[in-house]
Amino acid sequence: MTGAELPARVSLREVGPRDGLQNEDPIPTDAKVELINALSTTGLRRIEAVSFVHPKAIPQMADADAVWAAVRQDPDVRYSALVPNQRGLQRALAAGFTDLEVVVSASDTHNRSNINRSTEESLAALPELVEQAHTGGATLQLIVSTAWGCPYEGEVPVERVVWVAGQGKAAGIDSLAYGDTTGMATPTRVTRLVGETRSAHPELPLGLHFHNTRGTGLANVYAALQLGVDDFDAAVAGLGGCPYAPGASGNIATEEVVSMLEDMGVDTGVDLDALVEVAEMAERFVGHTAPSQVLRAGPRWRTTPLAGPGDD
Ligand code: ZN
User: Beta-strand (E) ranges in 146-248?
Assistant: First the structure.
């Protein structure tokens, strides 16, 4: 048996500054700026920088405009912003963003707890958002969250998720991403959902966003790679979670993804040593031990002195 051919390269979107920090105690504006600037020097080509949500909803992102104004924008990096609604979208356009994302939960309960609307109500607002984004010269990605399960409802049927994606396509979104909000995906579930989505919407670019809540994050990436998926989100140091999802813990750690992919001959364009240094910085900023295991162990080519007996 020969394995499936893996993509020669993948495009990673770093989501630590937004998705990651949104679920941490607020850190100073200049620390956010320093983090984004440092990430921009590692070879990462896509960074989700901020979210234009209402400050009352997510106080951690209240300084989005100030952060973005102070970032040293690298011309080789595409910076994106999350927008919850028309008002946020207009703020993002005014700030100069050309890559925008909107999140809709496949599960109604999660969507209501997140933005106080049903999934259908959020989907009904999409065509207007797409039109405004395009008029403003920006692209809009639909991120479907709870794509592999909901912390409130449990199972979310594959058909439901594919239907939500189809509603996005009908609304004119430029690309699609699936979020495993609380780490409920496993490789077989990834294979099934990606397969059914490709069958239904073959022309829609698809990225995947995994959380490592139950330890299956990298296995899920590998399953998706075997299907040719070459677009993944990850957060430096494994920061992040979801404030509306009980028990949600970190995104998959960018340095873990880079470490695995590069060793498998899949090009990420990222300098792992540089990225680990930024992960150390991120951990310092949030003030607690981050979940990333590559941050603890170091890249695999880093050798350690010979250990004594009892080292198994
Ligand atoms: Zn996430």
Answer: 175-179, 206-209, 231-234
Q: Based on the structure, what is the number of domains in the chain?
A: 1
- Would you say residue 221 lies in a domain? yes
Domain of 39, in residue numbers = 11-297
Question: Catalytic pick from 53, 103, 161, 242?
Answer: 242
Give 1 Cα–ligand 1 centroid separation in angstroms: 35
Q: How far is the CA of 309 from the centre of ligand 1 (A)?
A: 41
Look at residue 130 and tell me if it is in a domain. yes
Nearest-angstrom CA–CA distance, 54 and 84: 9
Q: pLDDT per residue over 96-148, tens digit each?
A: 999 999 999 999 999 999 889 999 999 999 999 999 999 999 999 999 999 99
| pLDDT over 80 at 237, yes or no | yes
Query: How many whole angstroms from 209 Cα to the centroid of ligand 1?
Result: 6
Annotated active-site residue 150? The verdict is no
pLDDT band at residue 3 under the 50/70/90 scheme: low
Distance 270 CA to ligand 1 centre (A): 20
DSSP letters of 69-88? HHS---TT-EEEEE-SSHHH
Helix axes 187-200, 158-171, angle to 10 degrees: 40
Q: Is residue 307 part of a domain?
A: no
- How far is the C-alpha of 165 from the C-alpha of 123, rounded, in Å? 10
Q: Are 106 and 119 in contact (CB under 8 A)?
A: yes
Residue 250 confidence (pLDDT) above 90: no
- 27: domain CATH number is 3.20.20.70
Q: How would residue 1 be classed by pLDDT, with cut points 50, 70 and 90?
A: very low
**In terms of pTM, does the model score above 0.85?**
yes
Domain contains 138: yes
Q: Which residues of 157-177 are buried (b: 16+ CB within 10 A; e: fewer)?
A: ebebbbebbbbbeebebbbbb
